[in-house]
Design a protein that fits this description.
86% helix; 0% strand
């Protein structure tokens, strides 16, 4: 613990916003992981179960989709509730429900992206502050006191390394979450269309 405190103090004043960004990033990563576990579902399994109840047991099919939960389950349940309407009406109901799910899929991703963008800049500010400290020490004492000069350089390197590391970690998780969101949207589009085809007799 003492080593961590010493490391943070050695990075200079810009370590405080970097630490705040890192805490926020960890919290957002945990939130997104939990959220995607709740939203992601096996589309093939849900659709196969729905087929077993159709055409006569629509209410049971709706109940199964709602019990499965997730974005896909709710979208398919909305489509099944409109099973006795035209294909266009079913598609519109599915699209409306899908649009309700989109905000939860992309929530907090802009904040993660902002942290990715500003972390290296904060590290760069720390670098500038550390180099200013080093040059000030050199101008006042010359090279007779290298410890002050090296301390400023160390401050610069610590803040830069922290900012870049934070950006790299955030970038990896941002891409992962963006791909998860894209996959869920693609599943909604595919299995939603399959459900419409099934309900309207386009395919058996």
């Amino acid at each position: 613990m003492e080593n961590l405190v010493h490391f943070l103090q050695g990075g200079g004043v810009m370590m405080y916003p970097l630490v705040a960004c890192s805490i926020l990033l960890i919290a957002l990563i945990i939130e997104r992981i939990v959220t995607f576990r709740k939203l992601a579902r096996d589309g093939e399994g849900i659709l196969e179960a729905v087929k077993l109840h159709l055409p006569g047991e629509v209410e049971q099919a709706i109940s199964h989709c709602e019990s499965e939960g997730g974005s896909l389950g709710r979208v398919l349940a909305r489509g099944l509730k409109n099973a006795n309407r035209t294909a266009d009406a079913i598609e519109m109901a599915i699209e409306q429900e899908a649009s309700n799910e989109l905000p939860s899929l992309d929530a907090n991703l802009p904040v993660i992206k902002t942290i990715i963008n500003i972390s290296p800049l904060l590290g760069l500010l720390g670098t500038i502050a550390g180099m200013i400290t080093s040059f000030r020490a050199a101008s006042q004492t010359g090279l007779s006191n290298p410890s002050q000069i090296l301390g400023g350089i160390s401050e610069a390197l610590i803040s830069t390394a922290t900012g870049i590391s934070l950006a790299v970690i955030g970038f990896v998780f941002y891409n992962y979450f963006a791909n998860q969101s894209k996959k869920i949207v693609e599943d909604i589009e595919f299995y939603g269309a399959e459900l419409v085809n099934l309900l309207t007799g386009r395919v058996s």
